[in-house]
Structures are given as C-alpha cells and as structure tokens.
Amino acid sequence: MRVNTERLKEDIEALANFVDKSQIGWTRRAFTPFYEEARGWLKDKMKSLNLEVNVDAAANVIGTLPGKEKHLPVIMIGSHIDTVKGGGRFDGIIGVVAGLEIVRLLKENGIQLRHPLQVVDFTAEEPSEFGISTIGSRGMVNNLPETMLLRKDLQGITLREALKRSGGNPERLTLEARKPGDVALYLELHIEQGPVLEQTNHQLGVVRGIAGIQRYRLTVEGEPNHAGTTPMNLRKDALTAAAEIILCFEQLCQETYTEEVVGTVGKLMNEPNAANVIPGKVTCELEIRSLDKDIQDMIITQLHHAALQISKRRGVSVQFDCLSQSEPILVQNNVRSVIEQACKEVAPTMFLSSGAGHDANQIARIAPIGMIFVPSKNGRSHCPEEWTDYEDVALGVQALLKALLLFDQQLD
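^ thats the sequence. predicted structure below, dont judge the formating
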C-alpha cells in the first residue's frame, strides 16, 4: 500500500482555501465561519469514504470505520484544522488528512482492521479567544470544567455557547466522556515545528514524550520616582530588578540537565512606562518546558531563591503566581518501539521530544499515545512561511499506516 502524495497535496490545498483572507498567512481560527466551512468540507470527505460521521459533545468531528471485532476499543488517529492567527498550512492539518488517506488505502486494498478506527478533528487545539487550548480533546476526556465553559471571548460569548454553535452539547460532556479502556491507542502525525530533523537529515521523528509546561506570573514592585533627580544608589527600580531575575532564569535554563529544558519570558508590562520615570512595577510571564517535572521544579525553586536575594539587595518586592501546569507525557516504551520499527522501514528516523503541546496531552489521560514528526523547513511554524515538503508528509503517513497495522494485530 503506497500513500498517494498527490491526494494529500489536494486535501491540504483544499483546506487552505477556507481561511480569513483579511489576515496574513492561512488564518482559520476556531468558531469562525471559515472554520465551520472547513469542517463541512471534512465531513463531506468522511462521508464520501462511507465513514460514520458524528459530532460529539465537545464539537469534535469524528469519522468511524468499523472493525472486524466490534467489542475491541477504538484506535484513534487525529489532530486539528484550526490555526493561530497568521498560521501556516501544515500544523495540525496533516494529522487529519493523514487519517483520510489511511482510510482510502485500507478500503482500496480491501483491508478491514480488527479494531474500529476513528479519524478525529479536535475542536480548537490552538489557544483560543477564550484563553484555553486543546478544547475538544479536553472535552473528550471530561477535562473541561464549568469554570472554563463560562469563560467569554471579546464579544461576550461563552465557551459553552460557542460549542453549541459548532454542534456540540456541553450538557453531555460528562455523559459522553471517554474513559480508560474506551480507546486502545491514539496516534498523531505532526510537523516537528523545529529544525532538528532537517538539520540532521532525518525525515521521520519518533516522539519520546511531550514536554510539561509550567507558567508563572512574576510581579516586581519598586518605587516610581523622577529619573533625573533620584541618585542611582537610592533607586528602587522594578525594571532593572526584573531584568536581573529574567537573566538569572535564562542562565538556569541553559545549564546541562538529564533532560532538555527551555525557558522563556515572552510577556512583560512596565509601569508607568515613561522615559523620565523610574519604573515602579513590572509584571512578566514566564514559562518552563521539559520532559522532567523534577528539573522544572528545581529550577523554579532556585529562581525563587535568587529573586529573593535580588529583591533584598535592590529594595523591591517580588511575587510569583502559578498560572498553569501541565504534566510531561512520556510515550510508553512498547508504543515507541513499534512506531520506531514502522518509521525505520520508511525513511531515516530519529527520536525527538515535543516541546509543543498537542491534543495527545489530553488523550493521554485515558489511553496510550504515540506521535510521528516530519520535518519543518528552517524549523518554521505558526507563521505563513511554515512548510513541509509533500513527499515528507507522504512518508509520515506511510509510517503511520505501518504502525497502525502493527498495533491492530498486537493490541488486546
């Protein structure tokens, strides 16, 4: 069974037509008309393959291919078709069209799996206007509490209302939630969103795990004062204190650990933000990602200690608030070894970790997960320049198909 590269290209380019042309790149935000039109196209594609198509309580679009042994739990292939603003054509999308192509190949070759197969387009994987990401996969595993459903976007629409408009049924989230044992395995094909595969001349990456993410808000309060009349040794400058803490954080994350660590301060607010006033208050948000939670905790503890020393020396106050934490996800050894076997039969392969979050993070709460990466040109993603050669997408689908056939025989 050989993957049809041209069909994959046609599907990806077809989805690229459902975009907000007032935005740069390929923008298809969740809960917009462009998103709903794209999902309509996807449902039609699923129906043309005689899949049983339904929309669950979390508005996930699901196409089901029956298996020989109806009592077996489903194997799930999925991803998402929503994008960030100014996004590209491949992130998430290739994981969904991969499912379509695999169904085509199975049907063309008269192969029926033992397990039922579900191809899933998860709702709103990207950070949404409600401040929440992985909405559909959260809903599928009953991790979308009322506090999240009541969040509002800038138009005052609640997430609960948005899910209803997309065909979901929030009142049935708990009733329809998947439980351990309902899903035999979740598989996802995704672009790497980084430069490693391309730089090392590998075409496939077997994902070892998905990094846990901890986010904190750091607030430094000093004393605003006149920039021309306050001597340097009498200043309580919140911005210079925050800068020293940020550089300390960077240094801690650059140390060598048993697992890779990345740390970022990507948001900073300075008050009163005037050229002739000593900054009195600085608020910034930092995040740290790693496959090892103990390393993350250790770095944050060391940063707390360093920030306390800096604040005493500079005469400012420092406060840390934890915004969110997600646990690292490690791919089970038996799952990883089968995916490795499948990938090595197709193209040069290496192991990688995922520094980005995925719907797999949520599905891992109820089932084993596995992921395959394909190269991203120049490591670019979440931008109009995002590109993966169609031949590499096809190799990823070929490896995913091989892995699926192996798992179908070995599981249960």
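The chain has 13 helices and 15 strands.
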